[in-house]
Amino acid sequence: MGERGTRFLREGMERPASRIDDVPEEKVIRSLIDSFPSTVTDFKKLGKGVVRARIARRDLYRCCKFLKDQLGFEHLSMISAVEYDKRFEIVYHISCYGSCLLLELITSTPKDDPSVDSVTSIWGGANWQERESYDLMGIKFNNHPKLERILLPKDTLYHPLRKDFKGGG
Amino acid sequence: MWINMGPQHPMTHGLWNLRIKVDGETIVDAEPEVGYLHRGIEKLCENRTYTQIIPIADRLCYGSSLTWSHLYCMTIEDLMGLEVPPRAEYIRVVSIEMQRIASHLMWLAAYAVDLGAMIGFIYTMRDREVFIDLLQALTGSRLTYNFPRIGGVAHDIPPNFERDSLRACDYMEKKLKEYEDLFDGSKVFMMRNQGVGVLRKEDAMNLGVTGPPLRASGVKYDLRKDMPYSVYPEMDFEPATHPDCDCYARYRVRMDEMYESCKIIRQAVQKMPKGKWRTVAPRNAPAGTGLGRVEDPRGEGMMYVVGDGTDRPYRLKIRSPIFVTVSAAKKMLVGYKVADVVAIMGGLDMCIGEADR
Amino acid sequence: MDLKSRPNNPSLGNVITFRSKDFVKWADGVLEGVLRRSPVGSGVDYLTKDFFNWATRNSIYPLHFGIMCCALEMAVASAPRFDAQRFGVIYRSTPRQCDVLLVNGPVSKKLKPALRRLYDQMPGPKWVIAMGECAISGGPFYNSYSVVPGVDQFIPVDIYIPGCPARPEALIDGFIKLQKMIKESKKGLLTGK
Question: What is the pTM of this model?
Answer without folding.
Answer: 0.89
